[in-house]
Amino acid sequence: MLLIRPAKGKVLSHLRSVKAYLKTHKQARAEQVVGNLNPLIRGWANYYRHGNSKETFSLADSHTWSMLWRWAKRRHRNKSSRWVKQRYFREDWTFYQGKAHIVRRARTPVTRYVKGKGAASPLDPDLRAYWRDRRQRTLARTTFSRSRLALLRQQKGMCGLCRTPLGADDTDDHHIVQKHAGGANTMSNRMLVHRWRHHAHHQRHRYRA
User: Fold this and answer.
1) What distance in Å separates the CA atoms of residue 30 and residue 101, rounded to the nearest whole number?
2) N or C: more exposed end of the chain, with fewer CB within 10 A?
3) Which pLDDT belongs to residue 172?
4) Rounded CA gap, 59 and 52, in Å?
5) What is the separation of C-alpha 115 from the centre of its chain, rounded to a whole number of angstroms?
6) Terminal alpha carbon distance of the chain
7) Is-contact 163 192, C-beta < 8 A?
8) pLDDT tens digits for 97-109?
9) Inter-residue contact 193 to 171 (CB < 8 Å)
10) Do 52 and 3 contact (CB within 8 A), yes or no?
11) 49 and 5 in contact (C-beta within 8 Å)?
12) pTM value?
């Protein structure tokens, strides 16, 4: 059985980038550290989520925790470990500040790429439903925003403007009444649309997407 795991060099490079950030932000607020590191951690984990990465994710989480612990201890040299733990870490030792916390790679769902049926062709009209459902499942797997996922289900995987199937890499979040015109960021004022359709819509109405 072929097991595909993140390359050792890529893991070390990722951890070095986390370490370099903490080294250059020794006096940053904890909220800033969480806000800046989370996109880096989440993006890396999402990239490798299709392989056998759970063990690697857990190991990377452990190293990240050690770096955050040293960062917190360095900020408060005269405080006890107990004080530092209560100030920066939850009961499960998750680094946090307020409602924000450092994401854990090990909690990223590992998904497997599903091969298409034998000789199934996207150009076969009899298999149109099969390819439509496959695209919808792929889009749902790669959508991590809860609000976007809810919109996707509400629209049944279709573009809100042209009513054709959405793709995994060309989807934009469109506000029906734009924010500059007083539109809210509520679900009722948003829809998922094709990126090209989104830009065409904005060009017709003479404002930028």
Assistant:
1) 9
2) N
3) 83
4) 13
5) 24
6) 46
7) no
8) 998 999 999 988 7
9) yes
10) yes
11) no
12) 0.61
Structure tokens given for 206:
């003479």
Q: Which two tokens stand for residue 188?
A: 């009722």
Segment 123-136, tens digit of pLDDT: 777 777 777 777 76
Neighbour tally for 174: CB within 10 Å: 22
Q: How far is CA 12 from CA 25, 49, 59, 144, in A?
A: 20, 17, 11, 26
pLDDT at 168: 64
Least confident piece of the model among 8-12, 60-64, 116-120, 173-177: 116-120
Compute the distance between CA of residue 201 and CA of residue 208 in angstroms, rounded to an integer.
Answer: 9
Give phi and psi for 171, each to the nearest 5. Answer: -110, 130
For the residues 175-192, what does the mean pLDDT come to? 84
Report helix angle 8-24 to 54-75, nearest 10.
20
Q: Are 76 and 27 within 8 A, CB to CB?
A: no
Task: Look at residues 106, 65, 105 and name the one whose alpha carbon lies nearest to residue 89.
Answer: 65
Q: How far apart (Å, rounded) are the C-alpha atoms in residues 191 and 152?
A: 8
pLDDT in tens, 45-75: 988 888 888 899 999 999 999 999 999 999 9
Q: Which residues pair with 158 in a beta bridge?
A: 165
